[in-house]
Amino acid sequence: NYVWIGLNFTFQKRTWTWVDGSPLDSNIFLIKGPAKENSCATIKENRIYSETCSSVFKWICQY
């Protein structure tokens, strides 16, 4: 199953951004799939994928 990880694509800046506003360090994660205007990142097993933000998946939250 895919799970949201709190990362979305900022189309104007062409960058991935965490929900707290910090930019993704692209040396840490490789995101598979196209980054589009309405893209959010999901994780499945050991890979991260770009998916449409309106897709229905569960969330992982930092406590």
Automatic annotation (TrEMBL):
The keyword Repressor does not apply. Keywords: Lectin, Receptor. This is Killer cell lectin-like receptor subfamily F member 1. GO terms for molecular function: carbohydrate binding. The keyword Cytoplasm does not apply. It comes from the Eukaryota. Residues 1-62 form the C-type lectin domain. PROSITE patterns: C_TYPE_LECTIN_2 (PS50041).
